Prior knowledge:
8-stranded mixed β-sheet, two-stranded antiparallel ribbon, globular
Amino acid sequence: MKRLITAGMIALALLSAGCDKLSSKPVAFQNTDLTGLDYAKGFSLTDHNGKPRTLADFKGKVVVLFFGYTQCPDVCPTTMAEMAAVMKELGPSSNEVQVLFVTLDPERDTQELLASYVPAFDKRFLGLRGTPEQTAATAKEFKVFVSKVPGKEPGSYTVDHTAGSYVFDKEGRVRLFLRHGQGPAPVVHDLRQLL
């Protein structure tokens, strides 16, 4: 009888443990879930302070990575302003988030220009740049569309590019692709899931 009671208790414990697993829901993101993606693994660029950087430097933080350029007339400043609003909304948790702006225009976006442009949105944001070859390799690694569009005068070109942002979890794994222009609320929701 004692054996039967013990076996029954073990069976009940196993059953309830199984129920707990069934009832726990997977994380529901409002943006595109990229968990397990086999590209967008990292970069090797220089920040706007002149320090070499890789994705590993930001382990322990949620990283939002956006590709753009400082002379961008619309998508880039609105994305950066939106991320500044997201940081305010996150409050103290925002210290566990690192926003990175990767220039797709290293010819015009000097270290000095990035150093004045990027932190103007939030002093914690970092601008990243590389040589034209490093920039092309990084864009390829992240499957970012980039195309120079000639202007009327030399040096007045624009750059068409992918408008969304990548998000990495605290372990440095790519998790999300944020759509441009959706407002701060869905981004705040998703980043809170990862914090």
